[in-house]
Amino acid sequence: MKRIAKPPPVERDSPVPDQPPPVPGKPPPERRKKALAGMIGIDLVLPFAIYYGLRLAGADPWLALMLGAVGPLIRIAVTTVRTRRIDRLGVFTLSILAIGTAVGMFSADPRLLLARESWLTALIGLWILISLAGRRPVLFEATIAVMPADAAAQWEHDWDTNPFFRKIFRTMTLAWGLAFILDAVARVIMAYTLPIDVVPIASIGLLLVMLFAIVYGTKFYAGRKLATDGPRQSSSTETRGAL
């Protein structure tokens, strides 16, 4: 029987250099988004609800503000027990709560407790600005953490290969850091000028307005820069669409 010669092996094409490398598996974005929503609900909404609930029950403003820290403390404790470790964000939040509680124990001035919220936003702003000196700013890391794996891979590829993309993200990070610093200044002003029971709801409103302005402001800036200068800088279609 005549043997049929095997076809010569076909050489595989070398990887295309401008394709993003595969990204190792990480928790689904839905799980990370749920965790973030839970943290916002407990750290922001719950203290707000506790304060006004206690005030309606006739509690003193100082007591209502002090008990508002119970929710975040419970969240950190439950997370630490479940994961058997405490992350950097938990240490950061716990430190702020500890400092605020210590201040409250030595002062009965509720306005001082109201002003303590400015410490958190000021430190977040400084943390964001300091991250500009690192390899990747915290805004970039936080954004890709909640993105689908394919989109996150494309962004990481663009970060490594496209200086124009890095410049846009560093500018956006600078804007976020300055926005949190301005938010902290506004909180101090509100704490000492507005009626005490107006300050908590005004603080929530300020945060929502600030986040809306900075999110859509930086999104508009990035989209416009990528639309006008992006094609000349070889920005990917996926990146332009995401921003």
TrEMBL record:
Key words of the record: Membrane, Transmembrane, Transmembrane helix
Listed Pro residues bias regions: 17-27
UniProt region (Disordered), positions on chain: 1-32
Entry keyword annotation includes Transmembrane: yes
Annotated transmembrane regions: 35-54, 60-77, 89-106, 118-134, 174-192, 198-216
Signal peptide: none
Keyword Flavoprotein: no
Cross-referenced NCBIfam families: VC0807_fam
Name of protein: Intracellular septation protein A
